Amino acid sequence: MGGIMEYNGGAIVAMAGENCVGIAADTRHGLRQLMTVGCNRQKIFQLTDQTFVGLAGLATDVQTMSQLLDFRTKLYSLREERTMQPHIVGNMLSSMLYEKRFGPWFTEPVVAGLDKDKKPFLCGFDFIGCLSKADDFVVSGTTADQLFGVCESFWRPGMDKDELFETLSQCLLSAVDRDCLAGWGGIVHIITPDEVITKTLKGRMD
């Protein structure tokens, strides 16, 4: 088995549609790779009305990072008197990770959101903050290789919110069936200009 990034396991995928964007994660909470201690672990966090961040990696660093992101986002709103746009969240997250590069956060974040022009924004990071933007999908976690395969097969441009939900759900469930460190259910958030739709998925429990 791998190192510290695989200690708790996890799968996160974000995908772009037509004026909508989705982000999904599994809910398994593992310890020492193969011991499962729960199936309700939160890996996706809402930072603004239309920006979500998914944090894969070591569970303790995920919790710390999510609290720090929440603090920084609220501080920005108070100082600037405006909502942080997704690309600014991405840049902030990149600098937060890079400033800890000699003792890094063991987490590989994914940012998904709609900007002020209602266009999807997706980006992923490595654990020292190298930002990588994408127009189609971004994956992270121990299931990244499997997610790349199914997402490349199923993603297509111009999907509406219902098609995006179905595609995202099937990609997540298909991928985690091939990774013993992730699964046990999932959660999907679809972000549109008018609303955020959240649905839970029932997955295999073995």
Folded structure, characterized:
- The strands form 3 sheets. A 5-stranded antiparallel β-sheet has the order 10-1-2-11-12, with helices on one face. The protein has a 5-stranded antiparallel β-sheet with strand order 5-6-7-8-9, with helices on one face.
- The chain has helices spanning 59-80, 86-98, 144-154, 161-176; strands at residues 11-16, 21-26, 29-31, 35-38, 44-48, 51-57, 107-114, 120-125, 131-134, 137-141, 186-191, 196-201.
- Helix 3 (144-154) packs antiparallel against helix 4 (161-176).
- The mean pLDDT is 89.
- It is built from 4 helices and 12 strands, in the order ββββββααββββααββ.
- The protein is α+β, with helices and mostly antiparallel strands.
- The chain is 30% helix and 32% strand.
Tell me the major beta sheet: 5 strands, antiparallel
Quick one: how many beta strands?
12
Number of helices: 4
Identify the quaternary structure here: single chain
Could you name the ranges where pLDDT drops below 50 across 5 or more consecutive residues? none
What does the radius of gyration come to?
16 Å
Helix content: 25-40%
Q: How many angstroms separate the termini?
A: 19 Å
Element pattern in H and E: EEEEEEHHEEEEHHEE
Output mean pLDDT: 89
Strand-residue fraction?
Answer: 25-35%
Basic shape = globular
Strand order of the largest sheet: 10-1-2-11-12
Overall SS class: alpha+beta
